Structure formats: structure tokens, C-alpha cells
Structure prediction request, 238 residues.
Amino acid sequence: MTNRKIAIISDIHGFSLALDRVLADIDAAQVDELIVAGDLVETGPDPAGVLDRLQSRECVVIQGNTDDAIANSRLDSKLATWTEKQIGKEGRQWLRDLPFSHRVRPVEARSPWDDLLVVHANPFDFLRAIEPEAGEHELDELIGGTEAAVLAFGHIHIAYIRELSRMTLLDVSAVGNPKDGDLRSKWGLATWDSDTLRWSVELRYVDYPLAETEAQMRASGMPNVEKHLAKLKRASYV
Prediction:
């Protein structure tokens, strides 16, 4: 039996210390490939550090909605302006050039229905979220016509696995600022079994370096630090 292990992470949002812990967990799992599903820099205290870490590793990185917004100055806020300055023109160009999606096709694949497809939010745009309880009509609008065994994504910072008739949805949540009431960072593991010709998926959880991140945020010079620190600690949209 030959297994191919793919790690998928998303929504780092400038939180480099949380990223360090997740990368260490991924390295310990001895995966074959790392795919990063976007939203890399905006919100947290170390956007440049996040880019440095990703650019120094052999991994695939795709574009998220905030990457596009930062790259093209579409966010009108003090934090966005600060983030743009932190990563500079080269960082913004790197974000601008990222691809929209990444498809993993196993050697033994019989059709696209054997593939792992990684996007930021959905296969057609990086804004509309695939909610955990989305109904049949909504799912048809968001993923209709997409051929893949596993669709992996982030965007809404809520971890879940959902089995559809021909596809598994794998929401890997967020590395930097989870919103599902659990501050632990999350990442997804998709494993291809060449004997059964099937993918298996699971969610991994990593303890958050909250005290270290709080100190980093206070020292970073980022605007409205208390507001963003309070939001991080709530780990919720409310």
C-alpha cells in the first residue's frame, strides 16, 4: 500500500507564531505536500514573517480574498494600510500572482472525481462561503459541476467535514484566528490510498500560543491592537 499525505492549511492572517506551531505539527506528520489555501497576512501582527516562512518552504500557496484585497489596496482601514507597508511592494506582488486553486491528481486517478481540489472559499470565487449546514440549492450554486473526490477550503474559519453523494467537503478552518469557539489552530490532512483508490480526511488541532502572540501583537506597532486581541481571544464571529 502506498499512501500520499497532503496537508492543507488556511487563513493564517499574519499570525506567524500560530503558523510556526502548525508547521511543526505538519512536519511531525511527515506529509508529502503542503497546500496553503489563502488569507495569509491581513489582521495579525507579523504579515512579513508569514510570507517569509511560506516562501522559504516547498509548498503550494493559493490566493484568498484578503490576499487579493491587500495586493490591490481594496481595504480601507488603518490595519490594511499597516499590513501593506509591512510586506512592501514585493510582498504585494507575490500575493497578486498567487493562483486561484490547486488540484492534486493521484497517479492512479481514473477521472477528475479521484482528485483533491483546494480552493479558498469555493471553486468559483473566493468570497462566498460554504457553510456547514448549506442546503442542496446553495451547494449547487457554490460547487455545482465541480468534479473532485475531496474539496478542501478555509475562508469561514469553522472546521468541519461533510460527506456529499460524490464529494467530501473539508473545511480546514484557520491557523491564525479560528472562529468556531475553539482557539486551537486547525489544519486538514488528506491521505490517498493507492490500493483502495480513495481519499481519507481528518482535522488536526494545535494548541494556540496565545501569551506569546499577545506579546507579539503589543510589540508590533499594529493599529487597534486591543480590539484585535479581544477578537482573537473570543475565537468567534460574535
In short: Strands lie at 3-9, 33-36, 60-61, 102-104, 116-118, 150-153, 160-163, 168-171, 185-193, 198-206.
